[in-house]
Amino acid sequence: MRRKVRALFDEADLRVGREKWYFDVHVLPCTSIGLKLAKEYGVDEQVVEAACLLHDVGLIGSGTENHEKRSAIRAAELLKEAGINDEKFVSSVQDAIASTALEQKPHNIESKVVRTADAMAHMTTLHYYWKAHLKKDFKDFESWFKKKIEKDYAKICFKKQKKELQPAYAYLKKLF
After folding, report:
1. Cα maximum dimension of the chain
2. Residue 59 vs residues 34, 107, 171: alpha-carbon distances, Å
3. Distance between CA atoms of 72 and 78, rounded to whole angstroms?
4. What pLDDT was estimated at residue 128?
5. Which among 126, 176, 125 has a CA at the least distance from the CA of 150?
6. How far, in Å, are 3, 48, 61, 73, 123 from residue 91 at the CA level?
7. What pLDDT score does 31 carry?
8. Model pTM greater than 0.90?
9. What is the pLDDT of residue 131?
10. Residue 72: CB partners within 8 Å, gap ≥ 6?
11. pLDDT tens-place string over residues 76-110
12. Are 52 and 27 in contact (CB under 8 A)?
């Protein structure tokens, strides 16, 4: 699954820009953080891994609006293509992916883990800097960034991780 998702993002990156970046800068760190949190909170690591790997596939070719919903649908298709037909597993992955939307409240601990991993991956990698690189207008980036940092910090579901990320959040807020 990892190779398939990497190939999808690499192809999309090359269509949009000249460099492959999204999988390494966001998806892979999100998955790593998700697996660490899954161990810490004692949840299904396979659900978390699949959800983290697939949580942004709805961005490919479609933009950011409602991408979580598209990602959940596309994830089910990709899991079935990979021979995974366990409906409970697929549904759990879809629920965890859906929870990455700001307005969606996580229904279970796996969803909280994936939602938190997504936000933490934004805040602890070069994700924001790559976004700045892709924006043509710095004022546009600045406006987006101010909103995004607030949304990402709000998505962290666990007090421990919120406390760990508080210094980074405070620093990032001071940038603009």
Report:
1. 47
2. 20, 23, 28
3. 10
4. 87
5. 176
6. 22, 12, 24, 10, 28
7. 98
8. yes
9. 81
10. 58, 93, 94, 95, 97, 98
11. 999 999 999 999 999 999 999 999 999 999 989 99
12. yes
Place of tokens 């899954």: 38
> Tokens 């390494």 belong to which residue?
24
Q: Distance between CA 76 and CA 78 in Å, rounded?
A: 6
Tell me the CATH number of domain 2-174, given options 3.30.930.10, 3.40.50.970, 1.20.210.10, 1.10.3210.50: 1.10.3210.50
The closest of 142, 117, 119, 128 to 47, measured between CA atoms, is 117
Rg of the chain over Cα atoms, rounded to whole angstroms, equals 16
Vertex 26: Cα angle to 112 and 36 (nearest 5): 45
The answer to whether 87 and 69 are in contact (CB under 8 A) is no
Assess contact for 51 and 110: CB atoms under 8 A. Answer: yes
Nearest Cα to Cα of residue 37 among 164, 155, 161: 161
The token pair at 158 is 């666990």
User: Quick one: tokens of 74?
Assistant: 């596309």
Cα 30 to the center of its chain, rounded Å: 6
The structural domains of the chain, with segments of one domain joined by +, span 2-174
